[in-house]
Amino acid sequence: QLTPSSFLRIGQLSNVDLNEDIHELQTELPRQRPNEIPHNEKLLSLKYESLDYDNSENQLFLEEERRINHAAFRTVEIKRWVICAMIGILTGLVACFIDIVVENLAGLKYRVVKDNIDKFTAKGGLSFSLLLWATLNASVVMVGSVIVAFIEPVAAGSGIPQIKCYLNGVKIPHVVRLKTLVIKVCGVILSVVGGLAVGKEGPMIHSGAVIAAGISQGRSTSLKRDFKIFEYFRRDTEKRDFVSAGAAAGVSAAFGAPVGGVLFSLEEGASFWNQFLTWRIFFASMISTFTLNSVLSVYHGNAWDLSSPGLINFGRFDSEKMGYTIQEIPIFIFMGVVGGILGALFNALNYWLTMFRIRYIHRPCLQVVEAMLVAAVTATVGFVMIYCSRDCQPIQGSSVAYPLQLFCADGEYNSMATAFFNTPEKSVVNLFHDPPGSYNPMTLGMFTLMYFFLACWTYGLTVSAGVFIPSLLIGAAWGRLFGISLSYLTKGSIWADPGKYALMGAAAQLGGIVRMTLSLTVIMMEATGNVTYGFPIMLVLMTAKIVGDYFVEGLYDMHIQLQSVPFLHWEAPVTSHSLTAREVMSTPVTCLRRIERVGTVVDILSDTSSNHNGFPVVESNPDTTQVAGLRGLILRSQLIVLLKHKVFVERANLSLVQRRLKLKDFRDAYPRFPPIQSIHVSQDERECMIDLSEFMNPSPYTVPQEASLPRVFKLALGLRHLVVVDNRNEVVGMVTRKDLARYRLGKEGLEELSLAQT
């Protein structure tokens, strides 16, 4: 008997509690939970199921498709566009909500702390201010962490690795639920307000994906409501396409970059793509940016202006004084190398930290304590740095939101405070646009060093948070430092503008951490509103990716691998031609006969040791002894619907009199088919016969057992089950995603991962 809490934890993708299920199953035996969970990256988890991207073309499906005429197909196409528009509008509104709430809450917090600091600077006793700041941060983050750790662990992190897995075809429990969306939005507001080194951009991608999955299905399982619309789209293939649109709409709301959103979905997200999809996804992204822009413009009081296309606006870069010359190209390439090395260092540190978290910090209460600790440390580091900094700048003509005077003269403010005493988005914009001379090089150096380690420690906490903005901030800080040192060397030459190098540094750092090239170039160009820098940004990102890939893989891929998800890449490993289907397939295969006893079906489905999801159907000749040839494939979910509706007859030769099942019956049960244990089959019914002919897929994909692994791989990328047959068309094995994901290119060549139940 699994309790609900164990199901909640199964889907956790930031810190998987490996011992939870075993613990729940053995509650009657009092035993201590282990303090350490053995975990290594050479495992592949068996708990992730595949999604079904292959339509089962059984008789019911073909009859329905033949009935639909041209006009009906047009209606379906229009519905797709309507859904994309709705995805865009809702994603834009969610982004507005996050932005407005964060702005007000963070503003309130900074005003309270600033008044307190100003008060105590005059009469001594600044330790009270530190205490106030750290306590405010820790308590806000505590709430944000509690809801994630105890209610919906899948909402932790940025959600990009999870969505990437979903679009690749891995079913990650709870990833596109309404509950996840609510926790994600509240969690990201609380973690940004709590002053952690995080951004609110990454989670927008996850939020968009959840919105898309919800709208396209026309119902919510969390609310137990079915709106009876869009029923045609209740299958994995359609849902996947809409989720890619949702992810793109999320990017475009976050950065005001609709083209960047489409490219992000193409480059990072989708493993499946077609021409029509591009246009619809672009439409969703446009609508999303426009919605955000209109609502925020009204909110800021200039309704006709449309001046805030994204959650983060890097501000306009002035082309006249910010061009670049040919001698700067080597400098940009060098910055790319630095970004790649720093990004690789960030990822390597985060890798060891995440391993430690999976092993030791696997209980929700420990995760909450860790998040509070990080929040308090972040505030303390910020306070100490501001306190020790003697970098004073005149307030005249500066655009600082909360200028802290501290020990500066009247009319001056502490410039370290613009970096720490602010939300990360504002700090990035300040580093890009503050006039030369606003920052002391010492200030920037110390800030980069501290923030690098804080951001690294923060990513992977049990809070909803993105890594985009912190990476940009680290990069902008060292890029500006680089620009200042260049202008020292060139005696203040006009082209060595620190803001330009801050932009390049930000691109290099982010590229070095997440390894995106195409989409990131376009996002940076759209967010700065400047095409002039397209080429340098591209150079910097390419260099950062090449250098970073030489050391370790990108942050998202690394987290996918740490979770032991059976993720399939575009191509099979290069050296795998020597392997054939016979060596990778799973055997023996549980087959069903075309006309089968109900008892047999129930026993096969109830067998927990072989929890299969697809069964080849073979010809049922009772008299012959040889193995019968393959006739089709039927899914566990279909069998469960058949048993639930009791589609069986007492003897094999009787024809079925009851009402026929429609495709709608299968769609209504999607996506959460009831478990076999909940279906009651009496002793008499067990003796009845069930005819699978019209429900099975009569033309499943098959491969001969001599096929090489790369060939099998190409076919199996979108399939859940690939049947392996011999030359007499008899079933000899079955290839699923896990059989292929086991093989991967390691340091020494092709390596095989071991499979783990957890």
Automatic annotation (TrEMBL):
<keyword id="KW-0472">Membrane</keyword>
<dbReference type="InterPro" id="IPR014743">
    <property type="entry name" value="Cl-channel_core"/>
</dbReference>
<dbReference type="InterPro" id="IPR051280">
    <property type="entry name" value="Cl-channel/antiporter"/>
</dbReference>
<feature type="transmembrane region" description="Helical">
    <location>
        <begin position="276"/>
        <end position="299"/>
    </location>
</feature>
<dbReference type="GO" id="GO:0005254">
    <property type="term" value="F:chloride channel activity"/>
</dbReference>
<dbReference type="InterPro" id="IPR001807">
    <property type="entry name" value="ClC"/>
</dbReference>
<keyword id="KW-0812">Transmembrane</keyword>
<dbReference type="Pfam" id="PF00654">
    <property type="entry name" value="Voltage_CLC"/>
</dbReference>
<keyword id="KW-1133">Transmembrane helix</keyword>
<feature type="transmembrane region" description="Helical">
    <location>
        <begin position="442"/>
        <end position="461"/>
    </location>
</feature>
<dbReference type="InterPro" id="IPR046342">
    <property type="entry name" value="CBS_dom_sf"/>
</dbReference>
<feature type="transmembrane region" description="Helical">
    <location>
        <begin position="329"/>
        <end position="349"/>
    </location>
</feature>
<dbReference type="InterPro" id="IPR002249">
    <property type="entry name" value="CIC-7"/>
</dbReference>
<feature type="transmembrane region" description="Helical">
    <location>
        <begin position="130"/>
        <end position="151"/>
    </location>
</feature>
<keyword id="KW-0406">Ion transport</keyword>
<protein>
    <recommendedName>
        <fullName>Chloride channel protein</fullName>
    </recommendedName>
</protein>
<feature type="transmembrane region" description="Helical">
    <location>
        <begin position="467"/>
        <end position="489"/>
    </location>
</feature>
<feature type="domain" description="CBS">
    <location>
        <begin position="696"/>
        <end position="752"/>
    </location>
</feature>
<feature type="transmembrane region" description="Helical">
    <location>
        <begin position="81"/>
        <end position="102"/>
    </location>
</feature>
<keyword id="KW-0868">Chloride</keyword>
<keyword id="KW-0677">Repeat</keyword>
<feature type="transmembrane region" description="Helical">
    <location>
        <begin position="501"/>
        <end position="525"/>
    </location>
</feature>
<dbReference type="InterPro" id="IPR000644">
    <property type="entry name" value="CBS_dom"/>
</dbReference>
<dbReference type="GO" id="GO:0062158">
    <property type="term" value="F:chloride:proton antiporter activity"/>
</dbReference>
<keyword id="KW-0813">Transport</keyword>
<feature type="transmembrane region" description="Helical">
    <location>
        <begin position="242"/>
        <end position="264"/>
    </location>
</feature>
<dbReference type="Pfam" id="PF00571">
    <property type="entry name" value="CBS"/>
</dbReference>
<keyword id="KW-0129">CBS domain</keyword>
<feature type="transmembrane region" description="Helical">
    <location>
        <begin position="369"/>
        <end position="388"/>
    </location>
</feature>
<feature type="transmembrane region" description="Helical">
    <location>
        <begin position="531"/>
        <end position="552"/>
    </location>
</feature>
<comment type="similarity">
    <text>Belongs to the chloride channel (TC 2.A.49) family.</text>
</comment>
<feature type="transmembrane region" description="Helical">
    <location>
        <begin position="181"/>
        <end position="198"/>
    </location>
</feature>
<dbReference type="GO" id="GO:0005765">
    <property type="term" value="C:lysosomal membrane"/>
</dbReference>
